[in-house]
Amino acid sequence: MALSNEEKQQRFRDRMRHKGLRSVQHWVPDFRRTAMIERLRAEALRIAGEVPDPALEALADEAMADLADHRR
Predict the structure, then answer these.
(1) What domain of life is recorded for the organism (predicted)?
(2) pLDDT of 29-59, one tens digit each?
């Protein structure tokens, strides 16, 4: 007898869990929606117009250097 789609999906999930993996759902921006594109464009323009904060940039540079050292 053929398995239903639900049974196939459950077997797949069981195999993946047996391999030590787990399912994770991610929510990402929907670039198909005009409202989302407009919102992201507005945020990008706002950020581009901000005056750089040297202390914040130094902190970000430090964090990136720390990550680079961590990966070696």
Answers:
(1) Bacteria
(2) 999 999 999 999 999 999 999 888 999 999 9
Q: CA-CA distance, 61 to 68, in Å (whole number)?
A: 10
* The two three-digit tokens of residue 64, written as one number: 């990136």
- Give residues with Cβ within 8 angstroms of 13, minimum separation 6: 23
- Measured distance CA(5)–CA(12) in Å, rounded: 11
Could you tell me if 63 and 56 are in contact, meaning their C-beta atoms sit under 8 angstroms apart? no
* Amino acid present at 34: T
